[in-house]
Amino acid sequence: QVAVGLMVNPPTSGPELKAYEKEKKEKLASLERRANKVAAALDALEGVSCVRPQGAMYLFLKLEDKFMAASGIEDDREFCQRLLSEEGIVLLPGAAFNMPGYVRVVVCAPTEKLNEAFDRIDAWALGAANMGCVGDAAAPVAVTPPALAHHSSRA
């Protein structure tokens, strides 16, 4: 509640204002770095392309027609449902935002969770395109991304 209060009524003068502006600048820069790294990592995945974020805490992935046809997945809703049921990873279908054929990824999760999620999405998407999505569901990972530090080939 304190953070919301500061966002709605930020300090207007004195050392509090300087501290607030510094913290705000650092947070926004951190979110931008995370979003750019996540976008680069997602662009490296086979069968999807990333719509770069422009100031939001989320980005959209375009599910390429070639990937969808090869995997036998009908639409973004089925993609998200199968990813959830087969890998335990939560993404939102673009259809919920009037963007069918896309999925939404939020850029706020801890780095370790993101790294694990992207490894699993990558392997799952490769399997989906090559032989259909099969396998046991793993422990759920909510994909709400930041930076992908150890994925130098992706980030």
Task: Explain this structure.
This protein has helices spanning 2-8, 14-43, 65-71, 76-87, 111-131; strands spanning 48-51, 58-63, 89-90, 92-93, 102-106, 141-142. A four-stranded antiparallel sheet has the order 1-2-5-4. A two-stranded parallel sheet has the order 3-6. Helix 3 (65-71) crosses helix 5 (111-131). It has five helices and six strands. The relative contact order is 0.16. The protein has 155 residues and is an alpha+beta fold.
Per DSSP, the total helix count is 5
Look at the helices and sheets and give the structural class.
alpha+beta
Task: Provide the helix percentage.
Answer: 40-55%
Question: What profile does the largest beta sheet have?
Answer: 4 strands, antiparallel
The amount of beta strand, in percent, is 5-15%
- The pLDDT mean sits at 77
Low confidence ranges: 131-155
Looking at the structure, what is the overall shape? elongated
Alpha-carbon distance between the termini? 34 Å
Number of beta strands: 6
